[in-house]
Amino acid sequence: MKTEKIVECERKRMDKMINFRLPHVYLKIGIAIVAISILVMFWRAFVMDGDTEWLRTLTKKGFVIGMLLMSISKDREEDELTVKLRMQSYALAFVIGVVYALVMPYVDYGVSNVVKPNGESFKDLSIFQLLIFMLMIQLMCYHTLKRYR
């Protein structure tokens, strides 16, 4: 009997973590953070001079945080179907992200050797690039699935 209570308690905790969503207002906050990060990236690239590596790091992290807020915020009307579509989009983003992480370094290496005669050395993806790619895939898949339900 005691083990059944422990299992039920653990199941409730897992359900609570799986069904965690921020309120809908965080979608707008996430969009604002992403927009500000993009504007600062352009401003840094075209206007600022000097060593601005700290600003680059800050805008990258802001971009990831904004996309994460957009990804885990609730819709206006959240029901079982939207939860299922969200989980499908996370699974699809994970699978596509893994394939992207495995294939993209070789594609980048091949293209750089075709474009430049002496070529470049092989390099892996950055964590930032992979996170942004997976979050973009998740958001696009979720909104596409939601539109065609």
Explain this structure.
The chain is mostly helical and 149 residues long. It folds into 2 domains: 1-74, no CATH class; 76-149, no CATH class. The protein is built from 5 helices and no strands. Helix 2 (25-46) packs antiparallel against helix 3 (53-72) and helix 4 packs across helix 5 (127-147). It is globular.
Blueprint of the fold:
Elements: H1 2-18, H2 25-46, H3 53-72, H4 80-115, H5 127-147
Detail the poorly predicted runs: none
**Helix fraction?**
over 70%
Radius of gyration: 20 Å
Structural class determined from secondary elements: mainly alpha
Number of strands: 0
Search tags:
149 residues; 78% helix; mainly alpha
Could you write a compact summary of the structure shown?
This protein has helices at residues 2-18, 25-46, 53-72, 80-115, 127-147. With 149 residues, it is mainly α. The radius of gyration is 20 Å and the shape is globular.
